[in-house]
Design a protein that fits this description.
single chain, Rossmann fold, 7-stranded mixed sheet, 5 helices, 29% strand, globular, binds adenosine-5'-triphosphate, binds magnesium ion
């Protein structure tokens, strides 16, 4: 894969801080945005997603952890689709879920375990890789491919001047 257009690294010292980073991102999302989430079990992907949902004004009661379905639609300020690819075997299986019809559509997409099926990502997207550093500490590597994802990264995480 080609090198990302922009990258940033953040540190989160608590689940609450990861949530707060998510809220900030959720306020910025627009229809068509695609955010892929990568990281081991318990890395904090779902904590970040819950924050994003809050920032996108999704009612807390709507936000589940995708367990039975591959994609959950949420109604917020804009439609938000929360997907989890963990249990999928391959691209053909993903195709059968209808997921690909949602990409680039009227909602924003949040996709956990994107690394299970990298081809699920569109050409331009934002990827967040979470890594456990210590019990409560996570490192978040944020990478953007493309113009709009690059702008989204800048708006979310402005460089200190
Ligand atoms: N800084 C942190 N940010 C996020 N979660 C943290 C942090 N420190 C500790 N945690 C803990 O790590 C766990 C993260 O769980 P979460 O469900 O968000 O992970 P996940 O990446 O979605 O895992 P899975 O792939 O199993 O769904 C929670 O138990 C949370 O309390
Ligand atoms: Mg999860």
């Amino acid at each position: 894969m080609s090198a990302p257009t922009r990258t940033r690294t953040l540190r989160s010292a608590s689940p609450e801080q990861t949530h707060a980073w998510g809220v900030k991102l959720g306020r910025l999302l627009r229809p068509g945005d695609f955010v892929g989430l990568v990281g081991d079990l318990g890395a904090g992907k779902t904590h970040l997603v819950r924050g994003v949902a809050e920032g996108a004004e999704v009612a807390r009661s709507e936000v589940a952890s995708p367990t039975f379905a591959i994609v959950y639609p949420y109604r917020g300020r804009i439609p938000l689709f929360h997907a989890d690819l963990y249990r999928l075997e391959d691209y053909d299986e993903l195709y059968a879920t209808g997921f690909l019809d949602l990409v680039g559509g009227e909602g924003a997409m949040l996709v956990e375990w994107l690394d299970k099926i990298p081809r699920a990502a569109p050409r331009e997207y934002l990827r967040v890789t979470l890594r456990e550093v210590e019990e409560d500490v996570r490192e978040l590597l944020v990478e953007a491919w493309g113009e709009r994802p690059g702008e989204l990264l800048e708006a979310w995480l402005p460089e200190n001047r």
